[in-house]
## 1
Amino acid sequence: MADFETDLSGSFHGNSRFYRRAVSDDIPSTNLNSPLIEDCSEYKRRWASIRVLYLTMFLSSIGYSMIMPSVWPYLQSLDSDTTAGFLGWVVAAYSIGQLVTSPLLGRWANRYGTLAPLVASTSIIAVSNIVYGYLNAIPAGVKYFMIGARVLTGVGCANVAVTRSFVASATTLKERTATMANVASFQAIGFILGPVLQAAFTPMGATFVSWEPIKLQLNMYTCPAFLSAILAIINVVLLCCLFTEYGVDDDHDSVVIRKDVSYTSGISTASSTDVMVVKVRVDYVAIAVSLIIYFGLLFVFSFFETIITPLSIDMYGWTHTEAVLYCGLMLSWAGFVSVIAYIGIKPLSKRVDERIILIGGLVMMAVSFLLSLPMGDQYPILQAADLTPAINQTAPSVNGTHGPTVGCLLQYLWCRHTPIIHLVQLLVSVTVVSLAYPVCVVILSALYSKILGPAPQGTMQGWLTSAGCCGRIFGPMFVSNVYEWYGPYVALPSVAGIIVVTVMVNVVSFRRLVPYQGGRKMSIINT
């Protein structure tokens, strides 16, 4: 154990009123102020704030998932020389932005409250999607501008850490696992609807409406980005109108309103120059293990984010339009399965040790990748021998007309000797991953918040998000290059191996992954 000192100067400046939930008569009083019982109206206001963040997670998720199925064909339409290896950088760019910003937003939320960083980050999401939609207007180096737009989106989506931090601080230990599951469920619902909306835009094709005076193009690639920007603006408005700061004392189950308000009730409060310092003893080994496991989870899941669209084109000979449509539907199915998993987490976590559930989910993920290994004697269709990317090639169709060339690129030497992954195999693998991955994320997030204990968690939740970002940075680069060089025969077992290592770390550290058990000291110092 080690001491962890947290300065709550920004969160508790000004007139703040402290409420305690009516849990039991023998709850000791904190040394800050005389607490008030949290009545029904305050309870409802607290949960209204939590539910606003459910919506925030939903809107952020739907904006992200709408774009992902079309990134690869959009990239090739902007720069025909782009390879799958560069796609890894584009996917990783999102996580690079999130990696750098998550701890900073968490620190900001700790010192000055949750609302300001949420509004700022969500506004950045709107701007980044507008930039993404206008990439076609850039005359040169457009693929690098795409990376910049994705980095900016990642900066905005670092608000995931702030959201988790608020949910952890505004719920009791008994409420937390179920509430974390709800947060993840709303993410999953957004993940479902995003690809469905992308599929709905597919009939627009690559050229739908163009307005030359403002360089605006509306098509199946840009419309999801512009819709994401609109949703982000709506999100900002709702946050400003409906959100209120709250916090919960894990030791005593007391609820704290963390919003500056004026009172005439005569309740004594900390003065505007007072700073509350909380000193807690946390298990940094358990924290480090949690970060390693989260890194492994996101590293592995990046396989589907990065490879599923180019893999479907290589394996099944789909055109870009077909790949966007069918992969969007596949990801929608994955999101639907994830919601089922989230619903099952609540009753399951009450009956089974959360650490056991986490290990079981990781094992399921490893199995899912092995289930999708190529087998049989059916091989991919090969593209034309000039090695030009598919978007610039044409080949005669059955009726004699010409259309885009489809199939596996000849520069992928493995295409000649690697059987296809049968579509049923891929669907089964996606289904198993979609059941296991959300269970692992929710359980680990809940465990992590419990390990941290009563201190404000903004910064530490930012580090958890950053660990996941590292997985999403190195995962796409690793997966895309291994896939390009060696194909699925090597890429899939490699990813399964990462999961096995993660399971071993989990098993070795099993006894350390328990809720916070240390003491803490709280004091008011006059500044």
## 2
Amino acid sequence: MAASARPPLAMLYRTCSMPRTSLLRQSQRWSSSLQSVLAPCRPLHLRNHTCRSSSGEIRSCAPHLGAPTSRSHSTSSAFDSNPLSKLAALSAHSWQEDVIFHNACVDIADSAQSLLPLARELALQCARYDPYPGVECNGLRSCLSLVSTCAEHVATCVQEYGMRSIVSRKKRRMLQQVEAGSRLLHSLYQLLRYVKIIVDMDRDGQLIVDQSKFPRDFLSEAERMERRAFYGACFGFQYDQELRPILSMIVAAQATMGRAYAARQPQGRRTGLNILMPKPGDLVQAASSPEWVAEQFLKVTGRHDQAFSKLFWSLPEHLTYYGAERVAAGLKKCEINSLITIGPDVVSLPKKAVAGCGAGGGDTQARSQEESGGIPHPQDVTSIPPPLDLDGKPATVTIRHMDMKKRTSSQLSPAVIIHFHGGGFIAQTSKTHQTYLTHWANKLDAPIVSVDYSLAPEDRYPRAVNDCLYAYAWVLKNRVQLGTEARRVVLVGDSAGGNFVFSVALLAAQYKLPAPDLLLAAYPALLIELDPSPGRLQSLLDPLLPYGVLYACLHAYRGDEGHPQRLSKDVPVLTVDTHRRHSDILKSSRAYLSPLLAPDTMLSTLPEVHLMPCSFDPLVDDSVAMARRLHTLNKKVTVHPMEGLCHGFLNFFTVSQRARRASELCVDIMKTAIDKG
């Protein structure tokens, strides 16, 4: 990621400063040359000396033309069929567009001039927050990269507008882009001002600052900044070009479906997915007006509505697209792709012999003893109880078993991949992640087990952690049934699933279970708090994880509203008061909710860790902060920054070559860990 936004900003300032005088001279030339042509029909075209911008805003367009001549409508109508009248109309429209372009360029130049000193000051702090030497990745770099990418995009639009012919439709679209770019740069200037406040408040170099150090309304005030430009005509400028169409469609879907949900939900007129059915008029508006989409999207996400977010992001569960995506990606069908319900029996496993050993390490002797029919001593056995449902009764857990072939006892794989899906803790299952899991199964000679943990807000923390821990223990206990020896165990997860990757690994050490050999987390949520950071401020312009959705997901999982759920009596370390952040509880218990808060003694038990943060992701600083802590503890940690990709990129690997390469990187990382065994 670029450490400084200076070159693009400086170029943009030079590009947009030129029209300040040149376009004025051009408009004066238009005035004198078209005076005689426009005079007969001036009341029609320049009656009020105003023109509408592409966004509908009324601006002065020709103050230097003088007052309109007093001609009657009948006089002007005499020219309606005259070719000169048509030429005049076309010329006037083009001239008005050029004046709008000039005004936008003046605004762009002013914004670029304001951004330059602020960007230069912040760029000096970038290296301070990198995870470790040699890797340039953190939320501050991301914000400056946003400014740099935006400057390049706007400069391109300005240059392309000047090269287009008068009657070009694309020229009008470029004018919309230039106008939106002027507003976008102004919004980015506001964003950088909030980033500077965070950097100034950060005295310890941690990048993520405790929200108690800020005014109570800091994040609320940031959310109220002008953000429509981020989702309007210039939407997606920072992302890979192949991702922009699908992201635009997702934003438009949330805008239209959110309006339908808000209109129907209070009256209860429809239930289920039908409540999201958008109105035809809204679909037309979404297709024709990016600014309307931006306005509605911000209204929808600004409600912090858990129910709508859960319903919307559960839509892929009901779409039969998996087979088509698999075929389009050229993937073979998994021979085994089945759901298994496990529990509610207690799972007992021999404790590992040596702390810190992997699943195929120090516990080999205990496993062989168990398999030979020997009875381990009770002190050498750890028991993992099943999770409890809302009524306090033992509950079951569903897992998805995927493999490219059926394996006999003589064909067992040496490894197993245990996967925890994303979905903001509130939505989706293993079904919605089948496409990239099938890609992994095609490349890896190992079974994949994906856990369908319980979802918030119905099942709050720590139910999902209990589900994942129980599934982990069950897989190790029943490894032969799944076609694996489990000598090498890989935990992998994305987004919310990345949180469970760390939580399960920490709990495995707590219970002296066989430890995993590798942790792979893509864009994980490792801090379930609303603590500000430069990276988290990107939620103010993110299409998949906007601030309102992030707020709703974190609060739903923590259980800040309602009553705390009953906890498993046999898992006392999971007891936590979810109503108060600074409650009088054991410090270690917070580690399973927010692994980033785990003490050093707990983090030192983790195996090799690979993190895959996105450059333009609100959770980028979660990965960076975790990598910094692990590096300080001399743990083996590798950060793989994903440039130009958005949160949830694994689900888009069929539409983006860059996302596909990221999925291939996941395969390479897991394959390397498997081959070590």
## 3
Amino acid sequence: MKEELPVENGSQASPGTPEDGTSQGFPEQATKPHDKTPKVADGLAEEPPKGTLNVEEAVDLAVTNINLKLILLFIYVGLSMWSLAIDTLATIFTGEVPYKEWECLPTSLKCAAATTVDVAKATPEVASETVYDQQRMCSNNLKEGLDFVWTSQHTTFAQEWGFYCEAESNVSWISSIFFLGSLLGLLVSTAIFDRFGRKTGALVGAVMSFVATTFSALAPNYTVLFLLRIVMGFGTIVTYTGAYCWMLELTPKSKRNMVSGLNRLNFSASYFVLIGISYWIYPWRYMYAAGAVFNAMAILPLVTLPESPRFHLVRGKEKEAKATLHSISRLAGSNLDLTKVTLVYEVRKQNFLRQLKDFKKYPTMLKETLIAMFSWLLLSAVSYGYSFGWGKMGHDLYTSCTFDALGQSIVFVAAVPICSFLGRKNAIVYFILGSIASNLIAMIDYQIGGTWTVGQIASILGSMHNNGAFLMMYLFIIERAPTTHSGMILSLGSSSARIGSFIAPQINLLYGLTNRRVPLGLYAGMATLSLLGILGMSDTTGKKIPETPEDMEKQRKGGKGEDTVNGIVIENPDVTEKAETTADRDPQKTPLDHQKNGGYVTETECNGIVIENSGIDEGNEVEIEDFKTVTV
């Protein structure tokens, strides 16, 4: 086994508190509270904690409840994510082709003939009527400026650069390419956060998004806007991931579901802001300029917030880490005193090539990872297919998007209790079945009142259900992946979702080429395939998160799980004899002694949820930055 343990001045590290009060950066102890940790009641510690704590334990002591002050703090941090929907979905409005808002030029007999419909048989009192739609424009090859003019008050780059009918695919590519940038940002975000920190990494992403959005308002042509969308996608995902990790790292595990739900509401809030900007601002360049203002606002929290205590410890800055934790504890009302505590932290680097080889060695992990990737790709394609298709599916773009944003807000709030009531797998199945049924019902042509149709209402319900399934996939993948491989598996799953998002705008081109039931049937079919994948996977409700691929193989073959309280694992009956808890450890032993006796409890952090992991696999490396290392 190869490990790198921190030493200073050539001597072996010791677990004791150094005289200067700084952290030695030792590997983190177990994430379960140990005997040295005081009991906490009514939000106040009975006595200052002593000894050694990792960040998880310190956060659990510092934040005993989520009060109004912490909610306001998380809302403030959430401002950094308010540009998320604005950047992601901007082309819904800035690239809209207003096929219902145009009229013929008086000089074009071709246009007049194409748009005049004989209705005398149906309504004898009216000989004919004029109809303006996509089919009449495109099938008759009508040209803007020669045969017709746009009458829409809102201008778009699609109108300005002639992206309609056969050229409309350019708008879809502008929308899709954002997700290529997101995929690239997702792949390198871990390296950015490890090198620069959560806050600084997110700040770099926010600045990139601000610059890209600002210059989008000045884009002289399609190529420039295309490239800027890639930069925008990269910066947006890095900002979102960094800010999200910062929030989770300062939230107790028992409260992370609630904080995650609050975080998702930031997307809905951003969506409402985008709709308002696009409705009240008519020129598309000004829409991007207004979006740049919100991107600038996203920078403010990232400038004023402290860095994550985890990153401080990695850099050997225990004093700063304690200061951040103390500040959070004051907001939470616990006023935690860490003066007699040594904070410890471990940075663990997995052997990437070995992890890939493990997929061949452990068929259950390979099968379930591939199924999860496939299902998540399909659900993402359907979700964003709805988002970028409201101009085709709804009578009015702004009304449809407003109800879509409202539906997302409802499902983000409802997902947690639904998940608790039905369980993880059954909740996803419920949401997918709702999506399938809604898409099938949306094929019905029936007018309700003056503006609404069955298709519009069913499509909004379908979007709600599909977004619920899409959201649940994060938790479903996290809970089934072995802790030793969870970072890689979640990255693969999230990457596949970006591919689905990339495909989504292209699907909506079918609305102009075929009957509207074709894309709806495609959405229903994709949701059905994702459902079949989910049904082929085991449920994770109330089960132990496997620590290694071996544990995953045993668990899927009927191994014992473990009890949970509100979704939190509290006991593992199958822990091997070698795995130690903090209470089992001899405080006189060095980290190296403990490693020889069975291994540390490590964790995979950020990327949604922090997961415990007993033991370090052979072939993996443990590295503590800013310390000299010795190879054992």
## 4
Amino acid sequence: ISSLLVSPTSFFGWTFSSPSPMVGALLVFIWALLLRAESVVPVSTGDVSEAAPSPYIRLSTGLQPNTHQGGERSDDRKRKGVVVRDPVFGSDIPKDRPPIRAANGVPIRMLDLLVASLNANSDIPDHLKDYELDWTVQTQPENADDVHYLMGVQLLDADKLNDEGKPFPPKESFLIVVDSNGEIVAQKYFPFRIWQVTLINSTALYMMTTTGDTSGDWKSVGCLAIYNFELHKLTVTELPGATHYLEYEGKTNTFIWMKNTLNPLNCKSSFCPPDYASKPDNFKILAEQLIEHEFDAATFPVVTTKPVFQWDSMQEIMYSNNSMLKEIVDVEKLHQGMPELTHGNCVMRDFQDDAVYFNPLALSTLFKIDRKTNRILWAVGQFGTYKIFDQVRVSRQHRHRASHLLFHPHSINPLGNNTFLMFDNKGARTTSKAHTSRLVVFQVDEKRKEVVLQWTWHGMTQEDVIRWHRINGGGCHIIPTALGNRIAAVFGNPPVHYILDLERSKYSIHPPILRVRARASFIQDITPIYPNPVLQVLKKTGNSVTVFVVNGFRSLLTSVGWLMVWSSCPDVTERNHTVLFKPYWQHNWLSIPIPASGEISLQLVNDDGFATSEVVIHAKRGCTPLPEIPNS
């Protein structure tokens, strides 16, 4: 097209000395076809309920093809010796590549890149120039570590209330970074609602965003927003009807999301709860479609809308005769007058089992779905058929049947071995027999067709139980440490939330080591991270050492790192050990051989080239003197 605009007599290398009217008409026709093909690419941001479906989802420009899938690009930094990573997905790092270091030789931390980028590119509008988050640190840890927390703080105006006496839905947010003492160390303004923030790799993160009230997600446009904090680039994929949560995995270039839909309830082809049986034929309810897309390096940054996986929750749960489900006889949850029988709170990919986990709020049930056949593999909770046992208070030999597992839960966190952590909004029972929020860890036994409650946590005092109870929303994530897991969670109802960091103990309920109160805000979820990969020496025995290693962030797939070991003695060869970072941020303890002499240095590098500081331990003996070499 550019050649046409520059010279009407030249087209793709073909030159016409005197173009005839027929040739000119042909060129104009081809040009019109190209323009028409281009014009259907962007997704309409108008009324999506009436807009014609687009064959493409458009990403904004600025991102490059995935380099580790063969895309090659010119970059001056390569010639300057600076490590280059793809703006979104990152690139594989060779085993012999040294860690990324600053000019003074100290390893660069991904946290420092993130903090510097957010603070330097805050883009705060004029009406928020003097705005300060209402943020109060109430409890700090005695020995603070390097854990930090990412979250989207949606801004509420507590002075302006709707007819129901509640704040109007927020329309803008701050992405913030909080240190282990609860202090905000970075923030950046975004003109949309941020529901979740998750790291893709060491230089990029993604967010699930919307612009309207959740009751109308079916008629609005949500987004997968990718922010590269090394290159300060924001890229947005528009997702009509997107709601609450999505999961994106950069190594497979795939993302799975929930499309909110408004559907007529067909009581003739499904079992209807009594409250719905008397409704008119055009009565509508909210439901979810689970959709998975894949980016292609050849077409990036455009992805085709043809899903690689799609699952209709209303069809598969309500209209299918499934032996995994009990009969649906009652649904308590109504969302602002809009019934949401199979409206989902969370979706998660399981790459090992090639499955999808789905959590519909009103059914208080977690589903595992076969990604190839769309069949429900199991359902645990209120409408699941698996038996529920409580192992929190009794041993496995004397198990006790639990009355329930979950009640309106959020936030699916697989922990490996069919074990899950979830935020249970109303599952705890207090002394006054009222429902309140708690954290739950449970394990699903597919062979025995049962589920076992392993751990629960809720407020220790009646005051905390009331204060931390959360009706809508909620999120929690595991924090792996050398001594065991901690959990970060967001309790409390908007406009007041409580950010908690607490230890997980099998035998007792500990108070939070960190507690922060946030007012005039809505915070859906929280994501803990470390500044860089973590390496901690646990035990040294003879010529070996046991270490604890995890990457600086959670991922859905196994990733590769390298543990470098060297000695101060000149005659000792450096060794590199391959490290596999487990999915879901699972614990990883390794026993590795070390040299027998000198000062031994260890350093852990992840597949993005970010490394820990050097850890030095002392061997039993000093260096063996080298034999003298006589002068020639």
